[in-house]
Design brief:
It is built from 4 helices and 6 strands, in the order E-E-E-H-E-H-H-E-E-H. The protein is α+β, with helices and mostly antiparallel strands and 112 residues long. A hairpin with a 2-residue loop joins strand 5 and strand 6.
Length: 112
């Protein structure tokens, strides 16, 4: 697949969470529970709607340095439940990232 690129969405929020082990005697996974984790999941899903790979809440942007804040762009204000949130993104030119042809799938299979 020439020029194939993986597309990922990330939702970033800040807040508390509880980590718990879920599983059996044979397999245990970590799970994180809190409204803050749910918010990050909502943002991740919304990246498709907004057409951006990254959504950040204003709660997290408040912790950014002034220099980093110059790179964020507010794209919306939303209300989830009773709390309003400002949504930001950082504009990235993903097409400017070169594909590393040395580490493609063929190169990996040749290494095995």
């Amino acid at each position: 697949m020439p020029n194939y690129r993986v597309s990922l969405g990330f939702g970033l929020h800040i807040g508390w969470a509880i980590e718990g082990a879920i599983g059996s005697n044979f397999k245990i996974d970590a799970s994180y529970l809190s409204p803050n984790v749910n918010m990050a999941n909502i943002l991740e899903a919304a990246t498709k709607d907004y057409g951006t790979p990254l959504l950040i809440t204003g709660d997290l942007v408040d912790y950014f340095s002034d220099k980093v804040k110059t790179h964020v762009r507010m794209i919306d204000s939303i209300k989830i439940g009773v709390k309003p949130y400002d949504l930001y993104t950082i504009d990235l030119n993903l097409d400017a990232i070169e594909i590393d042809k040395e580490n493609n799938r063929e190169g990996i299979s040749k290494m095995r």
